[in-house]
Amino acid sequence: MKSMTAFGRARVAGEGYELTVELRSVNNRYLDLNIRLPRTWAPQEERVKAALSKLGVSRGKVDVNISVTDTRTQTGAAALEPDLEVARRYVEAALLLRDELNVDHDLTTSRLLTLPGVMVPVKEEDEEDDETVWAKLSPAVTEATLAFLAAREREGARLGEDLLSKLNGIREMVASIASRSEENIAAYRVRFEERLRAALGEAGNGVTFDENRVVTECAIYADRVAVDEELVRLASHFDALEGLFKSAEPVGRKIDFMLQETNREINTIGSKCSDAVMAQAVADVKSELEKIREQIQNIE
Fold this sequence. Notes:
Layout: E1 6-14, E2 17-26, E3 31-36, H1 45-55, E4 60-70, H2 72-75, E5 80-82, H3 84-101, H4 109-114, E6 119-121, H5 130-203, H6 211-225, H7 228-245, H8 252-271, H9 276-296
Parallel strand pairs: 3-4
Antiparallel strand pairs: 1-2, 2-4, 5-6
Helix pairs in contact: 1-5, 5-6, 5-7, 5-9, 7-8, 8-9
């Protein structure tokens, strides 16, 4: 079992560059990948998606942030040139603020040069091809994804332990419901016989006590309120849920389906409740099942 909430990071350094890859995710019904790459590396997006899927990312809203730093600029080893498109956007934004907010426009060339992305390394004549870029990027993506998946497994293990604990509690509640149901059926026969005998006594002589009729009436009542079939199906559902809670595969949808089936059986038992104690136990079971349902929304 894996959680859909996790974080993973990797930092890889090479000659003249440093790569950082970060993965964050929250729960989502399907796999929703949002990949942010440096502009010049945009063609690598499909390769990143394929790598994530191959490594086992199959569900959740996953944000992937990839940044690269040219370490040559930190030592002055690389020549710089202005990125005119980025600079133009800064100027346009400053003019818009001036016009809309009626403030002074004090953006100077010297200030513009210090803004992020304005000064960039001069492009080499032999610009890196896609294969060279992927050779740099692939190890960082793999390392970050493995860290991300390990975090999902750790969180999933904690959730699994809590879910198993809740399931064991539900088993005990259902066992008490079964016991109470049997007691109610036996008590009904005793009450029925007592009332029948009392009625016969009031009627006087000449009225006989038909034992077979008593047995028949009690059997009809027992058939109407018995929950044996529901309990058998519940036991099967509980075993299936326990196996899913311990599984290492993506099981969120399967658990959701099994909870629906379990709720159906509990509702049927609730409709057959013959006293307040059983009704309260059924309500407690439904409350615990709802807690599990909320938790598994975060399970892959």
